[in-house]
Design brief:
alpha/beta; Malonyl-Coenzyme A Acyl Carrier Protein, domain 2; Alpha-Beta Plaits; 2 domains; 4-stranded parallel beta sheet; 4-stranded antiparallel beta sheet; 48% helix
């Protein structure tokens, strides 16, 4: 049964947090293009990527320095299957959430995928070095931005705290010192949040507390052989299209320090009249957000397109 996908199409790449043992295994078993990516990634990364992705253990897979290159590998395996199955003619835009933004650069032709893989490995390393017991992140769902800002302000009396991710109008991640994160959990629960969950990520990602890691990452970014993208890349920080090398450099150099405003990314996709969103990576976190916030859009993930259905076609 073939699937017809209407353009304009947006290709999206998820970030840290979507990992799970078994990710990418179905693509690897079914598609030679995916097998080639996994096999090459093991050589480039000098890591047992297949064992980590397919078997875990989860404690090892959840390490920041392991998660990031492994998720990137799964994303790129899905992308190569997409490219061979559907081509790129109807793809009008690409974007990635945090870590996934680097995959989006490779998909837009701004950086070779093997270089992107090594960049992600370095990103994971410097972020792992920045991990600590006294910092963390909390996801809060069901409160609007004004309520989140009130919680952030009050919790900041216990320590530094920032809005790290604005994933949707009522879906946020706060990041900072753990005492403030714990206070935000209490305040969000009292305020009636549908969910207030402290994440198992010992980082204050997308805040000024990442400055040391960001400085190390900038050295790698400044060595990149970047090219202008062949299709627009929507920036994490602004949701605006990145079209030049200078814009890409600025986005990457400040990526760890600035908020991910995915809500603006979805606004931009609406303005571009995107009709189909395809999430290339584990799960369908970004596809689900798009389904809720972009009226009339069709959403798919890699498993649905390439495992549940066969014989893809485009319109």
């Amino acid at each position: 049964m073939g699937i017809t996908l209407a353009g304009p199409i947006a290709l999206l790449f998820p970030g840290q947090g979507v990992q799970k043992p078994g990710m990418g295994k179905n693509l690897y078993d079914r598609y030679p293009a995916a097998r080639r990516v996994f096999e090459r990634a093991e050589v480039v990364l000098e890591m047992p990527v297949r064992k980590l992705c397919f078997e875990g253990p989860v404690e090892e897979l959840n390490r920041t320095d392991v998660i990031q290159p492994c998720v990137m590998t799964v994303c790129w395996a899905a992308y190569e299957v997409w490219r061979e199955s559907y081509g790129l003619e109807n793809v009008s835009v690409t974007a990635g959430h945090s870590l996934g933004e680097i995959a989006s650069l490779a998909a837009a032709g701004s950086i070779p995928w093997e270089t992107a893989l090594l960049l992600v490995k370095e990103r994971g390393r410097v972020m792992a070095d920045a991990a600590g017991e006294h910092v963390g992140m909390i996801a809060i769902v069901g409160l609007d931005e004004s309520a989140i800002e009130r919680i952030r302000t009050e919790a900041s009396q216990r320590g530094n705290l920032w809005i790290a991710n604005r994933n949707a109008d009522v879906q946020f991640v706060l990041s900072g010192e753990m005492a403030a994160v714990q206070e935000a959990e209490r305040l969000a629960t009292e305020a009636g949040a549908r969910r207030a969950l402290i994440l198992t990520i010992p980082l204050a990602a997308h805040t000024p507390l990442m400055e040391q890691a960001a400085a190390a990452f900038r050295k790698a970014v400044d060595r990149l052989p970047l090219k202008a993208p062949s299709i627009p890349i929507l920036a994490n920080a602004s949701g605006e299209a990145l079209r030049t090398v200078a814009a890409l450099q600025e986005e990457l150099r400040l990526q760890m320090l600035r908020q991910v405003d995915w809500a603006r990314t979805m606004v931009s996709m609406r303005a571009m009249k995107v009709r189909t969103v395809v999430e290339l990576g584990p799960g369908r976190v970004l596809a689900s957000l798009a389904a809720k916030h972009i009226p009339g859009v069709d959403t798919w993930n890699a498993e649905e397109l390439f495992i549940d259905f066969a014989g893809p076609t485009t319109a």
